[in-house]
Amino acid sequence: MTSSGAKHVSAILLCAGVFLAFWAKPFHVRVQAATAPVTFSRQIAPILYKQCSSCHHPGGSGPFNLLSYADAKRWGIQIKTVTQSRYMPPWLPEPGFGNFADSRRLSAEDIALLKEWVESGMPEGDSREAPKAPVFSGEWQLGMPDLVLKVTSPMQVPASGTDLFRNFILPVPITETKYVRAMEIRPGAAQVVHHANMLIDRTASLRRQHPDDWMQGVPGMELTVDSGDTFDPDSHFLFWKPDSPALIELSGMPWRIDPGNDLILNMHLKPTGKVETLQATVGLYFADKPATAHPMLLQLEHDGAIDIPAGDAAFVIEDELKLPVDVDVLGVYPHAHYLGKRLEGYAILPDGEKKWLVLIRDWDIDRQSVYRFQSPTFLPKNTVLHMRYTYDNSKGNVRNPNSPPLRVKAGNRSVDEMGHLWLQVLPRPLPHTEEDPRVLLEQAWMQNNLRKDPKDHTALYNLASADMISGDYRPAVDLYRRILTAAPTDVRSLIALGTALDGIGDWQQAQGEYERALTIDPQSADARFDLAHLEAKHDNYVAAEQEYRRLLVENPNDAVSHNELGGVLVTVGRTAEARQEFESAIAIAPNFDALYNLAGIEADNNELPGAAVLLERALKLRDDADAHQLLGNIYAQSGKLADALDQFKSVQTLRPKEAVPHRQLAQLYSQMGQLRDAINEQNAAISLEPKNADDWNNLGVLHARNGEAGLARKDFEHALMLDPQHAAARANLARL
Amino acid sequence: MLFTRRTMRRPLFTICVLVSAFLYGGMCQAQKTQATYGYYLNGEPVRSLAPSGASAVVLFFAASDCPISNRYVPEMRHIEEEFAARGVVLWFVYPNYGTTADAVKQHEAVYGSEKHVLLDPDHQLVTLARAKVTPESAVLVPEPRGGDTFRSVYHGRIDDRYVRLGQERPKATQHDLERAISDVLEGHVVQQPNGPAVGCGIIGHP
């Protein structure tokens, strides 16, 4: 009986225990609320100062300040409303679907505290408990920039009306290549600017398209710029939104900017009720060295499928892209216009696992942003990236720009739509090859675009370019011909076809394509330059000189043509004239090739100090193995052995798989009497080229000089085994 | 543009009249205004909202530091220009407790000055118009008995650009205040707003 009664009590206690555990937390909160009211000083100020003040401060993008108790009380009701609805702080990604750095999303606890504070009368509490309000200086965040760019003409943003999208072109006044490690964008009137994107226009193409009005800014939501003829895909999200701090790139990943490049500031502007004057400035901070890691931006999209019937509340587009290489995803940038509703980005790994990259349940163009992962997200080769965007073109979508709804297609106006998912990826090096993995990504991306639209001109061109970089000239020829079938007078493709034909050895046909391009556009400097280059390459120096001189008549400041003409003149023995051309090129814009070529002339004339100075200048522009090599030789000849050693080490770093730098280092160490180092380098050379009899003979000499006769004998014998006729090895062996 | 909007609304008119007639009885109990209506920026009390013979008085409840209120300033000027010749007087009413005349003057220096501006710290007009937020509007009409007394026939949003905080149309599709003024001028039953006013809460005495 007793026993039975005891069991019964235990059961009741057990149930009570479960009940208590279930309610423990809410009870605790209530008790805490009753005994210690939520105050501004203790709980609210830390939330506001951390999550709100970065916009809500004088001069910030927020419309009012949140830097004091008085501020918080003034706006308390709104704070409660907008945090309850999660309108503020602005943050679109759904938690748990991508782990992003700098998340502005408030925790549920913070939102509950704000609500409780407002509903309890917004008490201040003990002001001594409040943290110090943050201070926002008007100075550049990282100190004075190395270069400050300012939009040429201020823009008057009207007091009212719909949103505006404007592209401001910023020419970059530099005379040598720079590497940007950080950038701060100051929009000029922060409350007008919803977001901004910076683009690098490698060929100043937008400025050339708008020669008369570019200074006022070019309208347009999105734009495409010509990236030129070198493979250098866009690699960084240069994005600004309210509260964006200075944008500091990851270590080893500065972005490059060359003389002649423009920066384009693409801004989304929102009238505030009064006329605003906008004139953005941009501060650039330069790195000492170029990038050692090369990220790339990839895009999923399916604009071609956007044809949304009026009234359709759930129109879906999708895209997918299979990764040809391993990558680390650094960030994502989803983008749609006003009809975008649910935006999904995810990856299906080769083992079938689904990995979310981003999910936005209620897209709002006004709150778009780049989202950077807290730590890189690794995706192995053969992962398939997916984009799935849903659009709402019904009248129930309050953001719908058309009332009543209209059929909507893809386009650049705010009443058109788009569906893009950009990813910043850092491809991992390819095993067993030095091939640039970005080329494989570019090929996969463009092939994907061609799958969606076989006539996609840009994709055909870019895919052909990627083939050219890989040395696959024949498929490139086919692709250029496909473009030219649709656009027979496309001069750029004719020139590219010429280059591809030259690549497969059909230089006469290449010549014909360049000439055809010049027939269509006699002013095409690219066609004439490539023709001149082709003539020079095939020893037609007279014709080459003629074409280069025509180019220079058209544009006397064409430094590259001066340099190329100098090269032709050197080849035909007109060194004095060549020197003039190289000097002209350098005077126009110090460029590596002209400096290197002129140094060669100086070195040939035994003007070693002058040659050394030119090479030192050249190496500041480009870290080049040949230049290090030549400078090393000059230093060695000048008796500056330690300096020579540095140069040869640089060659070895740049050409890690070549034996030559090791041989040179071995020779130099030997000259310096550092026989052990010399032997190490010689061994390194042999490890890369084990069947080179000369190397074995030289190793034998070094061993012999180091008193290691036994090893020397084996080395000489090895040399003779590889080359029984090796006279030096035989003589050295006899001398032992 | 305005003509187009009116034309598009016309098919709805009969329905609106019926709905409005129902609302009208409940809402438009004559509310006599008090003798003063707040203060001019020089501190003098405002004793008259409009000269005799005015068709209507429009109140625009504004706050100098509310971004949505500021964005409506050009729209209110547009409305003022549209109806001024027909005897409609627009007042910018600053109702927030703590708003000073100097702050309003500074605001006017940036956003442009108005002919009729008053501070309503005691919320006489807020009460009359039942305003809750800035921006919000009201349309007052003279009492039939004359004198400087008015009754409110419309209060609420200016248009439907803002659905709620954080949800905004690219441009308004319904111009409720303009429609209400037109109703008054044309002798129709005044249609009430089709949605709530969205903005910053009006601050009263602590």
From TrEMBL, chain A:
Keyword Disulfide bond: yes
Mapped TPR repeat ranges: 457-490, 491-524, 525-558, 559-592, 625-658, 659-692, 693-726
Alphabetized Pfam families for the sequence: TPR_16, TPR_19
Coiled-coil segments on the chain, per record: none
Disulfide bond found in the keyword field: yes
Gene Ontology molecular function: electron transfer activity; heme binding; oxidoreductase activity, acting on paired donors, with incorporation or reduction of molecular oxygen, reduced ascorbate as one donor, and incorporation of one atom of oxygen
Keywords (A to Z) from UniProt: Disulfide bond, TPR repeat
Name of the featured protein: Flp pilus assembly protein TadD/mono/diheme cytochrome c family protein
From TrEMBL, chain B:
Domain of life assignment: Bacteria
Record key words, sorted: Signal
InterPro entries listed in its UniProt record: AhpC/TSA, PRX-like1, Thioredoxin-like_sf
Record has Signal as a keyword: yes
Domain Alkyl hydroperoxide reductase subunit C/ Thiol specific antioxidant, first and last residues per copy: 43-133
Signal peptide: 1-30
GO molecular function: antioxidant activity; oxidoreductase activity
SUPFAM superfamilies per record: Thioredoxin-like
PANTHER family associated with the record: OS07G0260300 PROTEIN, THIOREDOXIN-DEPENDENT PEROXIREDOXIN
Name of this chain's protein: Alkyl hydroperoxide reductase subunit C/ Thiol specific antioxidant domain-containing protein
